[in-house]
Amino acid sequence: TQVSQDHETMAQVLFSRNLRLNVALTFWRRRSISELVAYLVRIQDLGVVVDCLPMLTNSLQEEKPYISVGCCVDLLPLVKSLLKSKYEEYVIVGLNWLQAVIKRWWSELSAHTEKVEDGNVHILKKQLSGLWEQENHLTLVPGYTGNIAKDVNAYLLQLH
Questions:
Q1: pLDDT digits over 128-158, tens only?
Q2: DSSP 8-state secondary structure symbol assigned to residue 136
Q3: Which helix (H) or strand (E) holds 56?
Q4: Which intervals hold domain Katanin p80 subunit C-terminal (predicted)?
Q5: Amino acid 116: pLDDT
Q6: How confident is the model at residue 9 (pLDDT cuts 50, 70, 90)?
Q7: Residue 85: left if φ>0, alpha if ψ -120 to 50, beta else—which one?
Q8: Residue 128 and residue 110: Cα distance in Å, rounded?
Q9: Does residue 10 register a pLDDT over 70?
Q10: Per-residue pLDDT for 53 more than 80?
Q11: HSE of 47, CA atoms in CB hemisphere, 13 A
């Protein structure tokens, strides 16, 4: 009875996650990135975020035009939750995304002018600094996680 009860619970969890991932995939296929981000923010399911964020990270690294600074600003609270996770995979996904965001908009972020064309760049810069003040301890983690955190840290230190 105990085994079958646990099996039923796990089946429900996986079914729910599969449904959420299919909705996210629909937005992705339509290139409705702002709708995808709004959906991720609305459902607050970090498992689904961890499954979707690598696609967004790759698109940022490839400098695809359909991911805006505004979408990144909206995703930052979810990424902050990933960085606080007890699961190293979640932390790594969050750090990889942060690294891609910083590199993608580095010229805008590092510009020493108050007249930034896009107000979201100013918001992103401010939020990144605030986030990193709380999460810079990740640079002390050994291995791959710490190495990504050190790279993020090196960029963000230049913004002050």
A1: 988 888 888 999 999 999 999 999 999 998 8
A2: G
A3: helix 46-61
A4: 5-156
A5: 53
A6: confident
A7: beta
A8: 12
A9: yes
A10: yes
A11: 8
The answer for 118, left when phi > 0, alpha when psi is -120 to 50, beta otherwise, is beta
- Rg value, the chain, Cα: 17
Taking Cα atoms as reference points, which of 42, 1, 47 lies closest to residue 21?
47
Average pLDDT over residues 74-86: 96
Helix and strand numbers (H, E) in the chain are 8, 0
Cα–Cα distance measured from residue 85 to residue 138, given in angstroms and rounded to the nearest whole number: 12
- Report residue 88 as tokens: 């190293």
Contact between 127 and 83 (Cβ < 8 Å): no
φ, ψ of residue 41 in degrees (nearest 5): -65, -40
Q: What domains lie within the chain, and their CATH numbers?
A: 2-158 (1.25.10)
